[in-house]
Specification:
The N terminus is likely disordered. Strand 36 and strand 37 form a beta hairpin. This protein is mainly beta. The protein has one domain: Maltoporin, Chain A, CATH 2.40.170. The chain is 5% helix and 57% strand. The radius of gyration is 26 Å and the shape is globular. The longest helix is centred in the first third of the chain and has 23 residues. The two termini are 44 Å apart.
Length: 762
């Protein structure tokens, strides 16, 4: 498949180049231009951002993507994978060129300037971005900035910055939408369809100096199995245990023979999202804006045991015998996949900004994110009795959250300089107790079993100068100074008894940046970029708890910040109806924060540690062309080759010389959309996505990828058809995973899914 994408990218690039000569005449004299992001906020309202950037607009999405959740907007963006296990998944981390799905803290996500990256952690579960606070139909555009080359962003931008901008009306408008989806899933002992329904509406208007938008989104989703219950086949046979049938033979990611006993994590989620934005022009050049998002999620998960006893009843635990091999299935094997999860989250932002376009402009923005209610309850006793109640545990994140404060300025002393500068502060609080529950289906809390608690604070000053050395040569230099502090760390355990208050930590770091762009001819831009990023440990990385038998280790509160030296060389050719870009990028990371296996208290365990030195080097080709070969046919695509290496790891020698986890060597996507000139209201899209297999472990010991917990290769095709019946009504039908590829990215991913959508716009 990588040859297919290389051939496709080459053919697309050749077609663009072959037709570019005539289009070049439409371009003006050579000048170096930069991206202007139009969101009225301190995070997104940046002119001349030096990063290599990809942009997706609402029109692009409407024509090409089966949109159900905001993650879908990023489906075909170069080197971005959102690990969305099912529609409505709340654990959907983002990958970048050089970071996998387990490194969520290396990418930052904003919507209208509000930080929705959960930088309380660096994982693919609780630290995934808060997608539920974005209403998908309100998105106007998304800009993806690669690498840590803009001084305005923290070290978490080492992978990318993703800025969502929502739509603000210029006159009265209203929208209503109804959508349905059905996934056909078959694997092992599961063979059924899983349905999703969505309704959405929004309304907005501009009344003189005042404008508003209010949006509502309701989602009811059923997922395919997210996990499996497995057991390694013993080396010797035995007659012990109760005979059971129904298991499936396979191998785990290490290549060991296993039996698959059942599926788990079959989620039913009901989600409601209300969001809005209000702006008021205090004067023609000064605007105040308030943005909010409120997200409620109720999630019930169940399991499906494949095992059957002599009576035909499902078996969930105990000593069993399968085909002459004895197994002991713990009660938790299946009961951990049964849970209730209720959460209510609130994001808010308030900004005051000027947009004179004169000598000086300013922007002041304050944002907050609060876990108003977050309770997950799990049974601890054996199924099937536990389906109806019994003992369990409850984990909470109430009072966890973060806030940010930015005060930025833009000074234009003359035509050759644009100086931006600012001050930043953020604070993250983790409060994560776990309680015993007499009845796991109730919130009545018993004794505290564990507690992880702490906070971090970062204060920063930054400045950046965009200097036009000549009409065709532009130099951007900048730097970011940061002071980071971690405090109030506490770890509590009931068994074994532990109550540790962690020492306070602090660190100062400076991150210089420089980008030189040269445009010698119309449509040509050559760019060289270099930047340092310091990514400080998150509060959960610092205050994790590791259990080794009966010993609860004291978490390591002395993790060092990651320090990355990133560089990029790129050449871009733009025509009036297309573009072609080739980028060579490189990242050298010192003290990378990765979860790895090491010896602790004479026991082999996995926990976050600093890996001394890693490297990631790659080549990215991105191209697009309108009216390719025939009028109305638009084609875009990208392909990336990546080479990675763990160069030094004092804690785990077996990892040295191995590839970085969760990063494939080859990946790419291609999208073809046809709008017949005779039927301008019709858009037909066929798209494809490809990824090589990758490794889940840092010692690359997982040789078998196409299994549960493996990171397998996949080639997935999608189809989308939109027809605008009139000026107000549009109908969409589509298929995701048209070729019904069955693959794993640790979890089993969705199989063929049909979608229908009807949208009314006034």
């Amino acid at each position: 498949m990588r040859l297919l994408f290389l051939a496709g990218a080459s053919a697309l690039g050749f077609a663009i180049a072959a037709n570019g000569a005539r289009a070049a005449d439409d371009l003006e004299a050579p000048t170096v231009s930069g991206l202007t992001v139009t969101a009225p906020s301190s995070i997104s309202n940046l002119t001349d951002v030096p990063n290599t950037t990809s942009t997706v607009t609402a029109e692009d999405v409407g024509r090409t993507i089966n949109l159900t959740t905001p993650e879908d907007v990023l489906r075909y963006v170069p080197d971005v994978l959102v690990r969305q296990r099912h529609i409505g998944d709340t654990q959907s981390p983002i990958t970048s060129r050089t970071s996998g799905v387990g490194a969520s803290a290396r990418t930052v996500l904003y919507v209208d300037g509000i930080l929705l990256s959960a930088l309380i952690g660096n994982n693919n579960t609780s630290a995934s971005p808060k997608w539920g606070l974005i209403t998908p139909d309100a998105v106007e555009r998304v800009d993806v900035l690669n690498g840590p080359f803009a001084a305005a962003f923290p070290g978490n931008s080492v992978g990318s910055v993703i800025a969502f901008v929502t739509r603000m009306p210029r006159q009265f408008e209203a929208h209503a939408e109804v959508q349905g989806a059905s996934q056909s899933f078959a694997k092992y002992g599961d063979d059924k369809s899983y349905a999703t329904g969505r309704v959405a509406a929004d309304i907005g208007d501009r009344l003189g100096d005042f404008a508003f938008r209010l949006s509502y989104n309701h989602l009811d989703s059923h997922s395919q199995p997210l996990t499996y219950v497995t057991a390694i086949v013993p080396a010797t046979t035995s007659a012990t245990g109760t005979p059971a049938t129904g298991a499936f033979n396979d191998a785990n990611r290490l290549g060991q023979p296993i039996v698959v006993l059942g599926s788990s994590g079959l989620e039913h989620q009901v989600q409601d999202n209300a969001s809005g934005r209000f702006t008021h022009d205090l004067s023609p050049s000064v605007t105040v804006a308030y943005t909010f998002g409120l997200f409620a999620n109720h999630d019930d998960s169940t399991v499906n045991s494949y095992l059957r006893g002599a009576s035909g009843a499902a078996v969930y635990s105990g000593p069993i015998n399968i085909a002459g091999h004895a197994y002991t299935v713990a009660a938790s094997s299946f009961s951990n996949g049964v849970y209730n999860f209720d959460e209510l989250e609130l994001a808010q932002g308030l900004s005051l900004s000027s947009h004179t376009g004169g000598v000086f402009d300013f922007d002041v923005t304050a944002t907050s994110f609060d876990y108003l209610h977050s309770h997950q309850r799990i049974p601890t006793s054996a199924l099937p009795a536990a389906f109806s109640g019994g003992a369990g545990t409850g984990a909470e994140l109430d009072d966890t959250g973060w806030y940010t404060l930015d005060a930025n300025g833009k000074w234009r002393p003359n035509e050759r300089h644009t100086v931006t500068f600012g001050a930043h502060q953020d604070s993250y609080l983790l409060d994560n107790p776990k309680f015993a529950l007499a009845n796991w289906q109730s919130d009545a809390e018993g004794a505290t079993l564990t507690l992880s608690k702490g906070r971090t604070l970062t204060q920063a000053l930054w400045a950046q100068d965009v200097w036009s050395l000549s009409p065709d040569l532009k130099l951007t230099t900048g730097g970011r100074y940061e002071h980071w502090r971690a405090s109030d760390g506490q770890n509590v355990s009931a068994t074994p008894a532990l109550n540790v208050h962690q020492p306070e930590l602090s660190k100062d770091a400076f991150s210089p940046k420089a980008v030189l762009a040269w445009s010698p001819l119309a449509g040509w831009t050559f760019k060289g970029s270099v930047g340092v990023a310091n990514r400080f440990p998150t509060v959960s990385e610092l205050y994790q708890a590791v259990t080794t038998g009966q010993i609860l280790s004291v978490p390591n509160p002395n993790l060092k910040p990651e320090r990355a030296l990133s560089s990029e060389l790129s050449v871009e050719r733009d025509w009036a109806d297309g573009s072609l870009r080739v980028s060579l990028f490189d990242e050298r990371m010192h003290d990378a924060l990765l979860s790895q296996t090491s010896i602790l208290n004479n026991t082999s365990v996995s926990f976050v540690q600093n890996v001394d030195r890693t490297r990631a080097t790659g080549v990215e080709v991105v191209a697009d062309r309108k009216d390719l070969l025939i009028p109305g046919l638009d084609l875009s695509g990208w392909a990336t080759w990546l080479d990675t290496d763990i160069e030094k790891d004092a804690a785990f020698a077996n990892a040295v010389g191995k590839r970085l986890p969760q990063l494939p060597r080859w990946r790419g996507a291609m999208v073809a959309t046809y709008t017949p000139p005779a039927l301008p209201k019709l858009d037909v899209t066929l798209a494809a996505r490809y990824s090589d297999r990758s490794f889940a472990t840092i010692d690359n010991s997982d040789h078998y990828a196409n299994t549960y917990q493996g990171f397998g290769a996949f080639f997935v095709m999608d189809a989308h058809v939109r027809y605008r019946l009139n000026d107000h009504l549009a109908a969409d039908v589509g298929v995701d995973n048209l070729n019904d590829r069955k693959y794993f990215v640790f979890h089993p991913f969705p199989q063929r899914t049909f979608l229908v959508d009807l949208k009314y716009t006034y």
